[in-house]
Amino acid sequence: GEELIYLDPHTTQPAVEPSDSGCLPDESFHCQHPPCRMSIAELDPSIAVGFFCNTEEDFNDWCQQIKKLSLVRGALPMFELVERQPSHFSNPDVLNLTPGEAELSEGEL
């Protein structure tokens, strides 16, 4: 459909104090509110979106459906599915770094 179901982790809660054993209570990282709904049209384009696929088969099916939708719509897709990381993401020249450049000598500290 045209709606998204989401869990909003951006709710305030008291700071969690670890127990003597070092464990944190599970409640500290679970959503305390039921899932919410919103129209896809209301989605902020800069938001991070996650999808849950129960099995590898579900994931493969989801990938095929997304690829079909991106071809049908004709507009720029919200995201793309690629087989491997684009080369410009792993190119050290993008950050103007050369091997060893990140290491500073004692005189530079």
UniProtKB/TrEMBL annotation:
<dbReference type="GO" id="GO:0005829">
    <property type="term" value="C:cytosol"/>
</dbReference>
<keyword id="KW-0645">Protease</keyword>
<dbReference type="GO" id="GO:0016485">
    <property type="term" value="P:protein processing"/>
</dbReference>
<feature type="region of interest" description="Disordered">
    <location>
        <begin position="1"/>
        <end position="21"/>
    </location>
</feature>
<dbReference type="GO" id="GO:0000045">
    <property type="term" value="P:autophagosome assembly"/>
</dbReference>
<dbReference type="GO" id="GO:0019786">
    <property type="term" value="F:protein-phosphatidylethanolamide deconjugating activity"/>
</dbReference>
<dbReference type="GO" id="GO:0004197">
    <property type="term" value="F:cysteine-type endopeptidase activity"/>
</dbReference>
<comment type="similarity">
    <text>Belongs to the peptidase C54 family.</text>
</comment>
<dbReference type="GO" id="GO:0000423">
    <property type="term" value="P:mitophagy"/>
</dbReference>
<dbReference type="InterPro" id="IPR046792">
    <property type="entry name" value="Peptidase_C54_cat"/>
</dbReference>
<keyword id="KW-0788">Thiol protease</keyword>
<dbReference type="InterPro" id="IPR005078">
    <property type="entry name" value="Peptidase_C54"/>
</dbReference>
<dbReference type="GO" id="GO:0031410">
    <property type="term" value="C:cytoplasmic vesicle"/>
</dbReference>
<dbReference type="Pfam" id="PF03416">
    <property type="entry name" value="Peptidase_C54"/>
</dbReference>
<dbReference type="GO" id="GO:0035973">
    <property type="term" value="P:aggrephagy"/>
</dbReference>
<keyword id="KW-0653">Protein transport</keyword>
<keyword id="KW-0256">Endoplasmic reticulum</keyword>
<keyword id="KW-0378">Hydrolase</keyword>
<dbReference type="GO" id="GO:0005776">
    <property type="term" value="C:autophagosome"/>
</dbReference>
<dbReference type="GO" id="GO:0005739">
    <property type="term" value="C:mitochondrion"/>
</dbReference>
<protein>
    <recommendedName>
        <fullName>Cysteine protease</fullName>
        <ecNumber>3.4.22.-</ecNumber>
    </recommendedName>
</protein>
<dbReference type="GO" id="GO:0015031">
    <property type="term" value="P:protein transport"/>
</dbReference>
<keyword id="KW-0963">Cytoplasm</keyword>
<dbReference type="InterPro" id="IPR038765">
    <property type="entry name" value="Papain-like_cys_pep_sf"/>
</dbReference>
<dbReference type="GO" id="GO:0034727">
    <property type="term" value="P:piecemeal microautophagy of the nucleus"/>
</dbReference>
<keyword id="KW-0968">Cytoplasmic vesicle</keyword>
<keyword id="KW-0496">Mitochondrion</keyword>
<dbReference type="GO" id="GO:0005783">
    <property type="term" value="C:endoplasmic reticulum"/>
</dbReference>
<comment type="function">
    <text>Cysteine protease that plays a key role in autophagy by mediating both proteolytic activation and delipidation of ATG8 family proteins.</text>
</comment>
<keyword id="KW-0813">Transport</keyword>
<feature type="region of interest" description="Disordered">
    <location>
        <begin position="88"/>
        <end position="109"/>
    </location>
</feature>
<keyword id="KW-0072">Autophagy</keyword>
<feature type="domain" description="Peptidase C54 catalytic">
    <location>
        <begin position="1"/>
        <end position="65"/>
    </location>
</feature>
